Structure formats: structure tokens, C-alpha cells
Structure prediction request, 100 residues.
Amino acid sequence: MNIFMEKVYLVVRKIPKGKVATYKSIAVLIDSPKSSRAVALALSKNFDPKIPCHRVVRSDGFVGGYNRGGPSQKAKLLRAEGVGTRNGKVSQLLKKIYQT
Prediction:
């Protein structure tokens, strides 16, 4: 694992249940604001259940991809944690955004 991925995973571990972060917000938090796609790529390689990558969504509210079952599984996990989703998007995204 490289340093970039370690930084991403460190931040994502801090996202509490019931909250989400965007790929872009993770990129900003690790001082790499133009790397939201790289954040998504790093999370696509994560298989550690201690890193809740399902809590990271797209800036437009769509849940995005998920390497352990696709977007529908990601939405299911979010709903189980109290994050509403509808038609593949997070409901009330701004109220659910994780702030450090």
C-alpha cells in the first residue's frame, strides 16, 4: 500500500455511521484537492471491513461504485446506517456530509 492510500484510508476510517463524505472532500482532507478520482480508485482496492468505504459518495449525491456488491449493495449499507437513498442518490446529502 502506498502513502496516498494510507492517507485516504485513515480519513475514511473516521467517518461515523449515519454520515457520508464525498470523494472530493476526502481528497481535500488529505491535501490533494484534485485527486478525487484517485481517492475512488484507492477505495476500489480496499477490502478491509474496518475501512467503511461505502460511506464515501459522489459530489452529485449518487452513491457511486462499490467493490463488494456494486451501487445497490452500497445503498443498502448506507440505509442500514440511517442514510436515506433514493434512485441511487443520497437523500438530504448536505445534512449527511461528514465534517471533520
Remarks:
- The domain at 3-96 is CATH 1.10.10.10 (Arc Repressor Mutant, subunit A).
